[in-house]
Amino acid sequence: MSIAHNPLSVEVSLPGEDVALVTVKGYLDVDTTTEFQHHLANQLHHGRRHFLLDLTDVPFMDSSGMNIILRVYQEARELPGSVHIISPAPAVRRILDLTGVSITVPVSESVEEALARVEQARER
Asked: Disulfide check for 108: which of 4, 55, 104, 114 has CB 3.0–4.6 Å away?
């Protein structure tokens, strides 16, 4: 008997020419990361260098979700670009903190804060 959960929903908006705001809703796990990865790869293909990952409505994320985030982080840094996690749910924040991902990938409390960090990085 499997545990049913909400399917993954991923919406992408463009708050800047090379910035993708990726809003994720639902479980980010081994069953759903392929879709998440597809959206990120599509944005990389279209020249986005900065990724704002809004995880507000992600109640659960496993290691496959973290691996996708770390992979896009590495790819973005090579451009150069950046990845920012926005307002993760408490359970997801705990996983990010315990694994050290939140040390590598900046966590912001809002889209505005993440956009400000992107602008600061551009000025360096």
From this structure: 114
